[in-house]
Amino acid sequence: ILLLNRYIECAVTPRVMEPEVDPYSYLKREEFTSEKFKLEIRCLPRVFGFKDVQCLVSTCGVVAHKVKKVNDLFYVTFSSEEDRMIALDQLHNRNVKGRNIKVKKSKPMADPYLSHQKALQDSTPDGPPDCKRPKMSKEEMQQQLYASVTPMVHLEYEQQLVLKAEALKKSLVTFERELLKETPAAKEWIEKNKKQFGSGVCCNFLPVIPSPSLRGYRNKCEFSVGTDLEGNEKTVGFRLSSYKSGVLSVVEPDCAIVSSLMQRIVASFQTLIRASSYDQYNVVNHQGHWRGLTIRTGNNSANVMIIVHFSPQSLSPEQLAEEKSRICQSLQAQYPEISSLYWNNVKTINSCSSSAIDDLELVAGDSKIEEKVLSSKFRLSPTAFFQVNTKATELLYSLVCDWAGTCRDSTVMDVCCGTGTIGIMLARTVRRVIGIELCPQAINDAKENAHMNNLSNITYHCGKAEECLPMLAETLMNVKDVSAVVDPPRNGLHKIVIQSLRKCSFLTKLVYVSCNANNAVSNWVDLCRPKSKRFAGQPFTMVAAQPVDLFPHTNHCELVVLFERNVHDPTSENPVQNLDTVKDEQISTSAVDKTNAETAPLDIDTVAESTESSLTSSCSSK
């Protein structure tokens, strides 16, 4: 009778229905979103890339806000309906390289997180969307964290290196396949090298150089602020999964790659914001304040940089100043290692980034921290790029120096040089280094770093590589032993840069440092493809590849690839039958054992000084 009464009581009790989840609710908010003004473009030539689409749109007198490619379709968003209609009217049925392209309006994309929530709601009509999500134990949560941040941590390190080598070899196999499409004559060269080196790929593939540090090796980490698995407490750490997968929970960064000092600072910051009356930032509705924490340490020098990321929303200046003072003073009191403390007022509405740099304010300490790599010192600003594993970076840069600068009379071009780290390392062993970088702030940092290391044989040029390289060619045409180093972003170099490098006939050697070998394949093919109208200049030949593990316990690995000219031209109609083996001393890893001996500053003769000065002023103005 009691059970029956309970059943009847439950049956007549009305359920509180959850409001229906709308994946397009973001379109109703007042914030700007270019998804409202989107076009779909199809039937474009196969070789078209993002830059090509942007240039095509610019011929209509409007600017593309975003360009996204899905299979063979391009989606372009604009800042207004007027711009979208202008592009639609002028581009539809336009003939582009013999093709009549088709353009039409495209529907906005659904919010991926809310789409996931709606799917859960539809599958559970009698309960809230989260009712089907299984509750994780602490052990399960830790395993999920490992799967997201350190997927290889359960493997022995030697096994990790084996898997990384196999993955990189697959990228080289893809390169071979794509190269054969462009030049079938390279087949004999590829097969002969495979037999010669016995590595199964077309060049001398050397064993992976392991990282000296396996735990706590990261010198920079960006931590998100969100809620724990129950959605109750503010938590600082890593997201368990991506926004698209429908998971917003954050867990504390108890994993192998984060140092104990960083973990302690994160725990202290978490305690401080839990005591705050302000909520964490909600990436779905863009409400709340606490967004993230960035920690950067000098692993070879005892100093720490902290950046607190905060969305002011409608807070008054007095409220903001009070909260800023409370957080910063407490962190400084607990951690005397903090030598640089920034507060970043984030105004960007972005569901993907918790640490976008918008309004950066130096609250206390120095504006930069110092790091040391072998015998070179570097001052790092908050936005400066620097490899995250300092000890392994020493091995990486030693290898690059060994391959790029074969003698003290060498001249090396550091293309996309950033803050000048590779060039400064090279300057101690070669006659001259020329750095090229688009970002003015990075160039200023590079000059400061060169001056701090007492180096006078480095010159920097601010501008696009494709504009600087042709002008530099005039001064380097008669210079012997000129090589180039490129360390591009994850997406690789733009085709225009590759074309400019090909045209530099004085280049005999190119060292390509890749952090994503799959994305670099197209660059490698363009360096080695036959001479044509689009790719003038003699092609390069891939000679050797050396992996360097900067990211233990993850799937990532750096790959340094050596290209040379006049060793063998794989695009020739009559491939050379006798291939010269790359000299052992040229591709050895002896650089790993180089000493940290200090080298006196070098003085060099200026080549075509007047032309150099005009180049500098020209690039700077551009």
List the helices and strands and how they pair.
Layout: H1 2-12, E1 38-42, H2 50-58, E2 66-70, E3 73-77, H3 81-91, E4 95-96, E5 99-100, E6 102-106, H4 112-123, H5 138-149, H6 157-182, H7 187-197, E7 204-205, E8 220-227, E9 234-239, E10 250-251, H8 260-274, E11 290-297, E12 304-310, H9 317-334, E13 338-345, E14 359-365, E15 369-373, E16 376-380, H10 390-404, E17 411-415, H11 421-426, E18 432-437, H12 440-452, E19 458-462, H13 465-476, E20 482-486, H14 495-503, E21 507-514, H15 517-528, E22 541-548, E23 558-564, H16 584-587, H17 609-621
Parallel strand pairs: 7-22, 12-13, 17-18, 17-20, 18-19, 20-21
Antiparallel strand pairs: 1-3, 1-6, 2-3, 4-5, 8-9, 8-11, 9-10, 11-12, 13-14, 15-16, 21-23, 22-23
Helix pairs in contact: 6-15, 8-9, 13-14, 13-17
Residue-averaged pLDDT: 83
Strand content: 15-25%
Strand order of the largest sheet: 7-22-23-21-20-17-18-19
Q: What value does the Rg take, in angstroms?
A: 28 Å
Report on the biggest sheet: 8 strands, mixed
Helix content: 25-40%
**First CA to last CA: what distance?**
87 Å
Overall number of strands = 23
Q: What class would the helix/strand composition place it in?
A: alpha/beta
**Quick one: overall form?**
globular
Please report the number of helical segments: 17
Q: Uncertain regions: pLDDT < 50 for 5+ in a row? A: 567-622
